[in-house]
UniProtKB/TrEMBL annotation:
<dbReference type="InterPro" id="IPR011611">
    <property type="entry name" value="PfkB_dom"/>
</dbReference>
<dbReference type="InterPro" id="IPR029056">
    <property type="entry name" value="Ribokinase-like"/>
</dbReference>
<feature type="binding site">
    <location>
        <position position="94"/>
    </location>
    <ligand>
        <name>AMP</name>
    </ligand>
</feature>
<keyword id="KW-0808">Transferase</keyword>
<keyword id="KW-0547">Nucleotide-binding</keyword>
<feature type="binding site">
    <location>
        <position position="152"/>
    </location>
    <ligand>
        <name>AMP</name>
    </ligand>
</feature>
<dbReference type="InterPro" id="IPR002173">
    <property type="entry name" value="Carboh/pur_kinase_PfkB_CS"/>
</dbReference>
<feature type="binding site">
    <location>
        <position position="27"/>
    </location>
    <ligand>
        <name>AMP</name>
    </ligand>
</feature>
<dbReference type="Pfam" id="PF00294">
    <property type="entry name" value="PfkB"/>
</dbReference>
<dbReference type="GO" id="GO:0016301">
    <property type="term" value="F:kinase activity"/>
</dbReference>
<feature type="domain" description="Carbohydrate kinase PfkB">
    <location>
        <begin position="32"/>
        <end position="279"/>
    </location>
</feature>
<keyword id="KW-0418">Kinase</keyword>
<dbReference type="GO" id="GO:0005829">
    <property type="term" value="C:cytosol"/>
</dbReference>
<feature type="binding site">
    <location>
        <position position="234"/>
    </location>
    <ligand>
        <name>AMP</name>
    </ligand>
</feature>
<protein>
    <submittedName>
        <fullName>Carbohydrate kinase, PfkB family</fullName>
    </submittedName>
</protein>
<dbReference type="GO" id="GO:0000166">
    <property type="term" value="F:nucleotide binding"/>
</dbReference>
<feature type="binding site">
    <location>
        <position position="237"/>
    </location>
    <ligand>
        <name>AMP</name>
    </ligand>
</feature>
Length: 304
């Protein structure tokens, strides 16, 4: 089914204890769309904004993964959003060294008419007011997935709550979930957030996996044990892309498919961290994705 992705496109300067990568293609919608592209034959629809420094090679990378970029605004003589960060040794914490919003500062998302019938919508981590504008332009979505961050939780809590009242699935990490709920206990936190609107909540716990909360209970997915982690940038967005990509592929949002989607999201995130930026997807194929999904199933399997 048709899948629409809205978020940022960016260039990142990334430093980790294991290396450095400058002018790296990034942004929430970039990671979401690339990840989701492995799960559906229909082109992934993307809405965003870039400057004239976003070159043909960057569009070619997206087009190679069947991503429809007609919804991306190109601002002539403008510069694309840039971010620079340094990760600590444990890779769970990072310092933002520089943020240049550039053309993203004036981003006013316009969903083309031919995108408005999208059945699956993924709202990447952007201003909740912009997320609301997008939702107002979508005709009749089957499933809306939303991400956010502590900046918006602290800075625009009322606008964020309006978004949550209109989405089906909310994805957030554990520290952000606690900040939003005001409670340190994740089970209580999940109840508080789900009462704000989203029937399904996913709390990401980094190297400790993810938790799925629904009316039917809690599902815990492990993280994949990797010996080498080079760059965690975009892993959460990649998770969201794998999650919604699987659901769009099967067209089914049942409890069972949601659980599978969490594992597919976790599988895609595990590939993401193996290289700097989104470039692991240059040589990744669906067979590898399915193999890693099976590996996730084996992690918790108990033989009779």
């Amino acid at each position: 089914m048709s899948l629409l992705v809205i978020g940022s496109l960016a260039f990142d300067d990334i430093e980790t204890p294991f290396g450095r990568s400058d002018n790296t293609l990034g942004g929430s919608s970039t990671y979401i769309a690339l990840s989701a592209s492995y799960f559906t034959d229909e082109p992934i629809r993307m809405v965003g904004v870039v400057g004239s420094d976003f070159g043909k090679e960057h569009f070619d990378l997206l087009h190679a993964k069947n991503i429809d970029t007609r919804g991306i605004q190109v601002i002539e003589d403008g510069k694309t959003f840039r971010w620079a960060g340094r990760y600590h040794y444990d890779m769970n914490t990072r310092d933002t060294l520089d943020t240049q919003l550039n053309v993203f500062a004036e981003f006013d998302p316009h969903v083309p008419q031919y995108y408005r019938d999208s059945k699956f919508v993924c709202l990447g981590n952007i201003d909740p007011e912009l997320q609301l504008k997008v939702l107002d332009q979508i005709d009749d979505p089957k499933l809306v997935v939303c991400d956010t961050m502590n900046f918006w939780i602290e800075g625009k809590p009322e606008e964020l709550k309006k978004v949550l009242a209109r989405v089906d699935v909310f994805i957030v990490n554990d520290s952000e979930a606690r900040l939003l709920s005001g409670d340190p206990n994740l089970v209580k936190t999940a109840r508080i957030i789900r009462e704000m609107g989203p029937k399904t909540l996913i709390i990401k716990k980094g190297e400790h996996g993810a938790l799925l909360f629904t009316d039917n209970g809690i599902f815990a997915a492990p993280a994949f044990p990797l010996e080498s982690i080079y760059d965690p940038t975009g892993a959460g967005d990649t998770f969201a892309g794998g999650f919604i990509g699987h659901l769009a592929r099967c067209g089914n949002t049942s409890e069972a498919e949601m659980r599978k989607a969490v594992l597919y999201g976790s599988a895609m995130a595990s590939f993401c961290v193996e290289q700097f930026g989104p470039y692991r997807y240059n040589d990744l194929d669906l067979l590898e994705v399915d193999d890693r999904y099976q590996s996730f199933l084996e992690l918790s399997r108990i033989e009779d």
